[in-house]
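Exercise 7. Predict the joint structure of the components listed below.
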Amino acid sequence: MSTKIGIYGYGNLGKGVECALKNAPDLELVGVFTRRDPSTVKTYGAPVYAADELMNFKKKIHVLILCGGSATDLPKMTPELAKHFNVIDSFDTHAKIPEHFKAVHTAAVESGHIALISAGWDPGMFSLNRLFASAILPEGQDYTFWGRGVSQGHSDAIRRIEGVVDARQYTVPVEEALERVRKGENPQLTTREKHLRECYVVAEEGADLKRIEHEIKTMPNYFADYDTTVTFITKEEMQKNHGALPHGGSVLRTGTTGVNGEHKHVIEYKLSLDSNPEFTASVIVAYARALYKMRRRCETGCKTVFDVPPADLSPLSPEELRAKML
Amino acid sequence: MSTKIGIYGYGNLGKGVECALKNAPDLELVGVFTRRDPSTVKTYGAPVYAADELMNFKKKIHVLILCGGSATDLPKMTPELAKHFNVIDSFDTHAKIPEHFKAVHTAAVESGHIALISAGWDPGMFSLNRLFASAILPEGQDYTFWGRGVSQGHSDAIRRIEGVVDARQYTVPVEEALERVRKGENPQLTTREKHLRECYVVAEEGADLKRIEHEIKTMPNYFADYDTTVTFITKEEMQKNHGALPHGGSVLRTGTTGVNGEHKHVIEYKLSLDSNPEFTASVIVAYARALYKMRRRCETGCKTVFDVPPADLSPLSPEELRAKML
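Solution:
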């Protein structure tokens, strides 16, 4: 029997989940639930329901995938819906994960559901690789490089500047720094030495470009600590050259072993992604599969990627996995 | 209370385990057990016992790490010792894993122990990455490249040739092929296109070098399907330049997502290891920690890396892991 999935929220991530489910014959998409007018939402084929109807599906959905944003949606949405469904989200505000975990755990335990928060690639696959690498090489140092990829948060920050019509910000790892880490040099790197920020900006006609550039480059937290380039482009160039949402990066750990730490090792996990939301969605779908397997083993409460036995992610049986992949 | 560990067998791997345990404050090494005369075995400080004494330690060891070879030792040793201890091994004959699993599982279940087979990096971390990547990107293709590193099996095969005193074989990935995979070209690669084999050979004085080179290059399974180079060197050069046991490689998966598979993704897990046995030992030690946590949750039977929740590998608590690594 297939595992029945619901999608709650239908932006880029929700669309990615719908696509990913097409490659998962053991998972069945029941429908998309939206807070917008359902008649305005065009899916790739999945039925669309108003969010208000969700409670009628309590017995028809095994895992509800929450595709809201981390800033305001998920902190309320995940604990609330964990009272009624097994849920999974991609909450990515790293600093607030413990707080979010606690709220979701309480709701899930009390109602006898299982939940998984912060699925995706960072948090998610990158986190897993930090954990694996540090457990294997306790004497060592971690590095995470992001990019080359679009940062939605930084793009939004630029768009809020007066005179800016549209903006796209690429986070770019400094190749020289990355190569030093790969060689096992264990460098101490400042924020500025690890990443560059490339900004492409469409400005209003007649806007003061010098001022916009200055405001971007000096923006605290977002840009002030980085070498930032600002390139003004036309609306047409933006549409033509910057429509995609690529991302990726590398998690590295360099460490030593031996009686005197005489042997060096480098572990690197690297992602090169054409579509950040679709890859994130693909990770979420694999964890949705796993989550329901765990629920069928009578587990409840909030989980993270750290708690999931890897075999549960695969549609293959344990026997097949051992024979083909071990 | 710390988890008490025993080491059974004290070659390169056993030594690596002893070193790795020094970086694991929550694990305590009880002793090394050897089938040799204990007075001839010099450890880095661990007490040495004769293998015959092992049964006196049934209540003093939580996990016994088996450091025998896969060809003849482990197929007998692991099921036999799983009757008396929680055990972990690094069985690496991929084709025989299902058979080995079955024998160990039966012994462990019947006696109420837990066991884990095939820990290390391949099988082990590489297997995990094959599983993760294929679960996330079901539409895609896997590639594993090994090296640059010493293959013990291939080195041994050369040593068996008449007139050969010593030999070291390096498996070398073909960089051009690796780059094509990294670019997402999804190439179909033959065995010859993926790896080269570099052989360094010390020959007996007066030996027929042409014959030795021919025998190596035409050896079925080991060398015939590869581009192989043979370099004759002196005993001194061998000692000076080829004493280390580096290894590593990359597991890659390239796959597509999107409504028409229009977005490409590349996942790469790459290891660069100065010491193959010490890195393998470090993986085993992390899994030994995990294994005893699973045993305390009353699990029994044979496991693999696919069955272990990643959090169990770390000495950190779940709360610490979520706060620091997620």
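Discussion. Chain A touches chain B through 68 residues (CB under 8 Å).
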